[in-house]
Amino acid sequence: MTTEVQTETTTPRKRVLSGMRPTGRLHLGNYMGALYNWVKLQHEYECYFFIADYHALTTDYADTSKLKDNIREVMLDFLAAGLDPKLCTIFRQSRVPAHFELNDMLAMITPLSWLERVPTYKDQQEQLKEKDLATIGFLGYPLLQSADILVYQPSFVPVGQDQAAHVEITREIARRFNHLFAGDPGGASVVTADTLRRQLDSLENAPPSHGYSNDRIVREIFAGETSIVDPSSRASGVNPVLPEPQVLLTPSPKLPGTDGRKMSKSYGNTILLSDPEPEIRAKLKSMVTDPARVRRTDPGNPDVCPVFDLHKVFSSEETRVNVREGCTTAGIGCIQCKGWLADAVVAELAPIQERRRYFEAHPQEVAAILEAGNAAANKRANQTMQEVRVAVGID
Ligand code: SF4
Questions:
Q1: DSSP labels for 14-65?
Q2: Where are the chain's structural domains?
Q3: Is the pLDDT score of 56 beyond 90?
Q4: So what's the pLDDT on residue 175?
C-alpha cells in the first residue's frame, strides 16, 4: 500500500485532511479561519477536503430542506476561494461509505464516557435549547469526526489555535484501536506537549495580519517534527493501522462581525464571500466602532475598535498606519476609515467572486469535480478499511 504521493522531485508529500459543514454561503470568518489556509496547504500536501454533509444532520436533522442548496453553495465557495481539483481532492462525506463503516467499528471500542465528557456536548445542548439534541447522532459527533479523519490515515489535521484539543479524542480513539487490534503497544507518532506549546506560543506572538507575516509561522510548522509512518512496516505490527494524526496549527484570526461579536452566521453579522460590492460597503458602513468615539472630533482608539481588527487582517501596512494616526488624532472620521476597509475587502474578494461566477455558470463542471473527488476519496478510504478489517479479523 502507498500512503504518500510523489511529486516530480519524488519528495513524499504528507497527507492532510479537513472538512466543513454545509451551512450555506461562506463568510469572511470561514475563509480566514480555514479556506485561506487550505488553499495554501494544497501546494505542499496531499490534501483531502470534504463537505461534511452528514455532520449537518447531527444538529439540523429536523429540517433538511436547505441541505442540498447549502452543499452546492459550499462547493462553489470552495472552488471560488481557490481550491484546485488538480492539487487536492474535494468530496462529500456522505458519498464515501467507509466513513460510516469505520465509525461503526470505532463505536464498538469507544467508551461512552469519552464522548460524554467532550466539552462541546453539554455546551451545545445548552446553546441550542430549541433543538432536541438528546440523540445518539449528536453524542457520537466526535466519533464520526474521528472516523472522517482516521479513514484517510493523514499525517496532519489543520486546525486553529482554539480547536487543537478537538483532535485529541481522535488520537485517543486511534491509540485504543491500535492497542486492541494492531499490536501497537502505546501508539506511534505522538505530538509532545512541548511541541504543541511551542506552536501555540509562536502563533500567539504572531502579528494577526494575514498580510502574512504568519506565513513564516505556517512554514515553520509545516517543517515540523512529524515523522511519516512507513506503511510497509504496518503489516508486521510495528506501526499502527490508524496512525495518530498530528495537529497542524494554522493562522486563524478571530474576525469580528459587523456587530463586533465573532463573525458567525447565527449572529447575522457576516460578510459573505459572495456579497456584491455595494452590500459589502453597506455592511461595513454600519459596523460598530470604538464606542467612546461619539463625535467626529473625538479621538478614537483603534485597539478597541472591531473595524481596526478587520484592517489588521485585510489592509496594507500603510493603510493601517494611516488609520491609527488619523483615528487617534481625530484626523479621519469613521466613515472614511470604513471606506478604506471596504476597498481592501472588495479587492480581496474580487478574484474569488470572479471564480464563483465562472463555476456558477458551469454546474456540470462542478458536478464532475465533485464526482471525481468522491471517487478518489473512496479509493483512498477503502485502502484503509481493508487494513482495518484485516486487523479486526473480519476481512
Ligand atoms: S476611525 Fe476607524 S479605527 Fe478609529 S474608531 Fe473609527 S472606525 Fe474605528
A1: -EEEEEE---SS-BHHHIIIIIHHHHHHTTTSEEEEEE-HHHHHHHHTT--T
A2: 5-256+363-392, 275-358
A3: no
A4: 95
Show the cell assigned to 281.
460597503
Structural contact between residues 173 and 187, judged by C-beta atoms closer than 8 angstroms: no
Q: How far apart are CA 378 and CA 97, in angstroms?
A: 8
The secondary element (H helix, E strand) that includes residue 247 is strand 246-249
Atom of ligand 1 nearest to the CA of 287: 7
Residue of 289, 328, 332 to mutate, ligand 1, most atoms within 8 A of C-beta: 289
326: CA distance to ligand 1 center in Å? Answer: 9
Q: What pLDDT digit, counting tens, does each position of 75-89 carry?
A: 999 999 999 999 999
Q: How far is residue 39 from each of residues 9, 47, 91, measured CA to CA in Å? A: 21, 10, 15
- CATH architecture of the domain 5-256+363-392 equals 3-Layer(aba) Sandwich (3.40)
Query: What distance in Å separates the CA atoms of residue 146 and residue 140, rounded to the nearest whole number?
Result: 10
In the structure, how many helices (H) and strands (E) does the chain have?
17, 7
Cα separation, 147 vs 155, in Å, equals: 14
What CATH architecture is 275-358? Orthogonal Bundle (1.10)
- Answer whether 95's CB lies under 8 Å from 378's CB: yes
